[in-house]
Design brief:
two-stranded antiparallel ribbon, alpha/beta, globular, 342 residues, single chain, Rossmann fold, 12 helices
């Protein structure tokens, strides 16, 4: 016979687990994500990135017109798991992921550009693979463009020395801005031998929290990321406790230190003639859509080359996936892979 005390102990352990599962399931259903990485990788584990056999000098960026795919080019790209060290920043980041397109995987690889994609919060870089179906999106694009697509780098942008996210800033909670603007590009250039020829080889994008990060990094480091996709981001780096709390915790009360990294403050004091971006907002996103509209208007007023796009959906993957998928041609034009249109 089972004692009542045993049942009580069992419920004490099981109840919190059920609550966590229920909450996770609710979040997953709301944002429209897939349940696991295995669900979008053919029920197989993502392999670790090993040594990459890439030429030291890959030449200029490969254009669609000039590219003749070798006979051994694979039909699809590959996704790998890796670690990108915080050599300069000191950031101890979690796992990162890399998508390598078919043209890069050929025996004579194309010199393809680099797209750094930032995840939301809560979340991690794997969300681009699960909810965003990134491998399928880029494989489909590559299939229509002779195997050419960007290398997609999905770093961990949540690593922080404090109890709240890094906000992709250099602050009391770590040098996340330095990690994403120095350590990540340096790793890509040394490991993948990509993005080594020109600033125009690089773009940054992200959804929600990651959209805000992409904006922050594009205007904090325009020489690194001259092209950006702000997908359903906020009008400034934000925490739930409000701006005063952010400035107090992240910058010890120094509002000027925050303003020096806040993109809409930065554009009031500097010009960005070589920067271009797209801000996308969900048609049904009543909270983030007005913020995206405000961002686009402020950038346009400051003379920045920026477009505002409204896509179907709310603050969900329907809108976030479209924010990337709809703009791949524009990105490839910015990179110089496709010819610019008038």
């Amino acid at each position: 016979m089972v004692s009542p005390r045993w049942w009580k102990r069992c419920l004490t352990v099981v109840a919190p687990v059920l609550i966590i599962v229920a909450v996770a399931g609710g979040i997953n259903a709301y944002y429209g994500s897939f349940p696991t990485l295995r669900a979008v990788t053919g029920n197989s584990d993502i392999p670790e990135l090993g040594a990459v056999d890439a030429p030291e000098d890959p030449g200029p960026t490969t254009t669609l017109a000039a590219w003749a795919p070798p006979s051994d080019m694979p039909a699809a790209g590959k996704v790998y798991r890796t670690t990108i060290p915080g050599t300069v920043s000191g950031v101890k980041a979690g796992p990162a992921y890399v998508y390598l397109p078919p043209a890069y995987l050929a025996s004579t690889p194309a010199n393809v550009p680099v797209l750094v994609l930032i995840h939301g919060d809560p979340g991690g870089p794997q969300d681009w693979i699960t909810g965003g179906q990134l491998p399928a999106v880029l494989d489909a694009y590559a299939a229509a463009h002779k195997g050419l697509a960007p290398i997609a780098v999905l770093p961990d942008a949540s690593a922080s020395t404090g109890p709240t996210p890094s906000l992709c800033l250099d602050s009391n909670y770590g040098r996340a801005g330095t990690y994403l603007s120095e350590d990540v590009p340096a790793w890509v250039k040394s490991t993948l031998k990509a993005g080594t020829r020109a600033d125009t080889d690089w773009a940054i994008g992200g959804f929600s929290y990651g959209g805000t990060c992409s904006l922050t990094l594009a205007f904090g480091h325009p020489d690194v990321y001259p092209t950006f996709l702000d997908i359903s981001g906020e009008d400034k780096p934000t925490i739930s406790d409000g701006q005063d709390a952010l400035i107090s915790r992240y910058f010890s009360g120094d509002a000027a230190a925050f303003a020096a990294q806040n993109p809409l403050d930065v554009v009031r004091t500097k010009t960005f003639p070589d920067t271009a971006g797209i801000v996308t907002v969900g048609a049904d996103d009543s909270f983030y859509r007005p913020q995206g509209q405000e961002v686009a208007a402020a950038l346009q007023k400051a003379g920045v080359d920026v477009q505002l796009q409204t896509v179907p959906g709310g603050h969900t993957w329907e809108a976030w996936k479209a924010g990337l998928q709809n703009n791949l041609d524009w990105l490839m034009q910015r990179y110089g892979v496709l010819p610019a249109t008038g």
